[in-house]
Design goal:
- This protein has 12 helices and 18 strands.
- It has 419 residues and is of the alpha/beta class.
- The protein has 2 domains: 224 residues, Alpha-Beta Complex (Spore Coat Polysaccharide Biosynthesis Protein SpsA, Chain A), CATH 3.90.550.10; 156 residues, 2-C-methyl-D-erythritol 2,4-cyclodiphosphate synthase (60s Ribosomal Protein L30, Chain: A, 2-Layer Sandwich), CATH 3.30.1330.
- The strands form 5 sheets. It has a 7-stranded mixed sheet with strand order 5-4-1-6-10-7-11, with helices on both faces. Strands 15-12-18-16-17 form a 5-stranded mixed sheet.
- Strand 16, helix 11 and strand 17 form a beta-alpha-beta unit.
- The longest helix has 15 residues.
């Protein structure tokens, strides 16, 4: 058999609470959407993939390039099987836009799988179970997990109820209730028709099965793993990371690597310093080829050292004009890309700033958050300390600033090298 994959990824993820949509959040050395796409990119039965992205999306091109495509949003010359189209203002419209991109390629009887961009933990055995169970069925079906908690139905609250009460509880029989997951698998022609009918009636289903149900159809429920979670809040990222790491290390010991880095810069003309990706006002700047961020330079050295990849001077020499005045976050991002190729992910970071001035304390949390975001870690996995040299040496005389960093790397699933 063969099938097509459609992925709605145009949502803003307001509940996630981050600047970037949740599908672009870093997770174990990749983004969430890269993990979500991975099972289908590795399956030879998948004839092609269409992703519906936001109208003004400056993050997808880089991801598409890592997947093997060009920098555009779906030109026919894209060498990958992934094509991107502009999404709609709700899930069902985004799905319909993606389905429209398959017109002329997918036959009415072809199977189409719809998978959430925010579900990075689909197991290969669940995908196989869906394909083999639904394929003989004329209509289609979806993965689902049984409701595990006791469920309650709430009546409307009354004026006599205390503040915060949502009503009076009544227990619901959970034995017949299942949580809908993805992928959901339907015939191309019937899914297009069901969504068109729903939209024409001013109705917008929350999943594809509902659109078919409104047509009087009865999709199959296929048991799926509860670990196929959907990323909704930042806490879900921690759970997803634990699931992915557990799968990768199942039956074998976790390999860990430790690295350390050190960097120093002399003070020079200027009125600010860059520390940990944060601009800090100061009476002097630093003498440097790039932006002189000693924290990120030490961190980059620690990352490269832990992976056995040399040092920052080998990869970003000050003799190369490309790095003149460069934002040091680029160095860290490049180092992370090399780690991904080796199947390594950052577990935690410890940084020490050595200087008489400026004071790090007022900027500690901002630096911590910036480094955590850069590395795709929870802030509690990044530690920032500062110390002076008690007036000793060039640091004690206020002639410069230094930083040292230590990192722990753990094994993750390796990513293919960039094309």
């Amino acid at each position: 058999m063969r099938y097509w994959l459609v992925m709605p990824a145009a949502g803003s993820g307001r509940r996630f609470g981050a600047c970037s949509p949740k599908q672009y959040a870093p997770l174990e050395g990749r983004t969430v959407i890269e993990w979500a796409l991975r099972p289908f990119l590795e399956d030879g039965r998948c004839a092609g993939l269409v992703v519906a992205v936001p109208a003004a999306d400056d993050e997808w091109p880089a991801i598409n390039a890592r997947l093997g495509g060009g920098a555009g949003t779906g030109s026919e010359g894209n060498v990958s099987r992934v094509r991107a189209v502009e999404g709609g203002d709700c899930r069902s419209r985004s799905v319909r836009h993606a389905l429209a991109a398959l017109a002329g390629r997918a036959a009415p009887a072809d199977w189409v799988l719809v998978h959430d961009a925010a579900r990075p933990c689909l197991a290969a055995e669940d995908l196989e179970r869906l394909l083999t169970s639904v394929e003989p069925h004329a209509l289609g079906g979806l993965l689902a997990a049984p409701a595990a908690d006791t469920l309650k139905r709430a009546s409307a609250p009354e004026p006599a109820h205390p503040a915060g009460a949502v009503g009076v509880a009544a227990t619901v029989d959970r034995s017949v209730l299942w949580r809908a997951l993805t992928p959901q698998m339907f015939r191309y022609g019937r899914l297009c028709a069901a969504l068109d009918a729903a939209h024409a009636a001013g109705r917008f289903p929350t999943d594809e099965a509902e659109a078919l149900e409104w047509q009087g159809e009865h999709p199959l429920l296929i048991a799926g793993a509860a670990s196929n979670i959907k990323i909704t809040t930042p806490d879900d990222l921690l759970l997803a990371g634990a699931i992915l790491r557990a799968r990768h290390t199942h039956g074998r010991s976790m390999q860990m690597r430790i690295g350390s880095g050190f960097d120093v810069h002399a003070f020079g003309p200027g009125d600010f310093l860059m520390l940990g990706g944060i601009r800090i006002a100061h009476s002097r700047g630093v003498v440097a080829h790039s932006d002189g961020d000693v924290v990120l330079h030490a961190l980059c050295d620690a990352l490269l050292g832990a992976a056995g990849l040399g040092d920052i001077g080998q990869h970003f020499p000050d003799s190369d004009a490309r790095w003149r005045g460069a934002d040091s976050r680029r160095f860290v991002s490049e180092a992370l890309a090399l780690l991904r190729q080796q199947g390594l992910a950052v577990a935690n970071v410890d940084v020490t700033v050595l200087a008489q001035a400026p004071k790090v304390g007022p900027h500690r949390e901002a630096m911590r958050a910036a480094i955590a975001a850069l590395l795709g870690l929870a802030p509690e996995r990044v530690n920032i300390k500062a110390t002076t040299t008690e007036g000793l040496g060039f640091l004690g005389r206020g002639e410069g600033i230094a930083s040292q960093a230590s990192v722990l790397l753990v094994e993750s699933a390796p990513c293919p090298p960039r094309s």
